[in-house]
Amino acid sequence: MEGKGHLNPQAIGFALSAIVTQEFIGDFVLAPIGQDTKSSIADALKTSLSSFKNNRKKSAKRIVIYRSGPSEGSHSAILAFEIPLARAVIQNFSKIIKFTFIVVIKDHTGRFFKKQESENEL
Length: 122
Fold this sequence. Notes:
Radius of gyration: 19 Å
Protein name: Piwi domain-containing protein
InterPro entries: Piwi, RNaseH-like_sf, RNaseH_sf
Strand order of the largest sheet: 1-2
GO molecular function, one term: nucleic acid binding
Organism: Caenorhabditis brenneri
Largest sheet: 2 strands, antiparallel
Distance between the termini: 50 Å
Number of helices: 2
Pfam families: Piwi
């Protein structure tokens, strides 16, 4: 990979149910930082949907897309491009597949702490 993001690529990973219940197949694609990832996302979705249909002999009922790590400034691009792209790819396979698109911004400043009842309690 040449250019921007050479040493720190984006990983686009995906997983799907295999033939046996509770067994999963997964893979990932590397894309340089700053490169348009829409084609990689579309390819990952197509691969996942095709593999699921080949393994299970039926289309998936539900898909969850978990998008981790975008900046707050990229939410409008996700809403304008990535979600419609995912919807179009999914509807090419089946009009009845439902999907959930989750966008998570990593925030390492928030923490969960157990409330201490007394100073003696650890």
